[in-house]
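Summary for the funding panel

The consortium committed to producing paired sequence-structure records for every protein in the target list. Below we show the first two records in order, beginning with the earlier of the two.
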Amino acid sequence: MTHVQSNSSKNTAFKLSEQVKATLHEKGYSFLFNYEDYKYYKAQAKKTFNKAYTIAELFIQENANQKSDYNGYIF
């Protein structure tokens, strides 16, 4: 029987900060992410069900005057 070793540095997809970054990227607001604001929003979203989505929404709401990355594209 072989034992599988996991390198924790490669398993970053489950980190809350990485989930928030991915959500912001999907919505076109990847440039908004910074760790100082992330820590603040994380404390606010402590009791929510989907923390990553809630934190991403807080980033977007606080920066409502910023345009999305997709704003310049014609669809």
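The next record, for a separate protein in the list, is shown here:
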Amino acid sequence: MDDVELHELRDSVKRLEAKVDQLLTQPKKRSGFMWKEFIVGFVVVYIVMMVVSVSIGLLNQHFGFFH
């Protein structure tokens, strides 16, 4: 590694440290309950559970597991 590469590496490290400091000094954008993420997660879990229950029902109807 020559001097030019070392100098570029130091500059990039300094820029990265400046960006990290800038991000750490920014206030939190939202603090509170994340309704959008909750609703999306609920819908995804609901769809997965419906698929599982329908597939178990079809397997039960075909093979008669729970009779």
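Regarding this second record: The two ends are 73 Å apart (CA to CA). The chain has a mean pLDDT of 86.
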